[in-house]
Design brief:
Blueprint lengths: L11 E13 L5 H17 L9 E2 H9 L4 E12 L21 E2 L5 E4 L3 H4 E5 L1
Parallel strand pairs: 1-5, 1-6
Antiparallel strand pairs: 1-3, 2-4
Length: about 130
Amino acid sequence: MINDTIDILDARIANVGINFEVIGDSNFGKFEILDACYQRLKQVYNNRTLQIGESMDIAVIYKILNDVPGVIDTVDVSLTSKTGGGYSDVFFDVNMNLSGDGRTLFAPQDFILEIKNPSKDITGSIR
């Protein structure tokens, strides 16, 4: 007799945050540019749910920010792990799961990457 089996396991949620730094055009207000960056990233990540094992492409975040009016260039984008205080208690080492070139955050096959609260988990600065 031949049997097929399927193991269904719960995925672990890894909460992450986005930190960014942009250079703004002097013809625009710095706070307007920064707010537009926040709004654009919130818009994208409020409506996006990553699948189990799906990677997060950091290069896409650079592109999103560079497309905001008034942004001359995006200097840095980094992802951080968020734990405790309403976030998942699962340990997830962002640095260990980054690609060699730092452009992709890989999720293990049993993890879901999540930006739980874009209003708090997305932070940035402008120069």
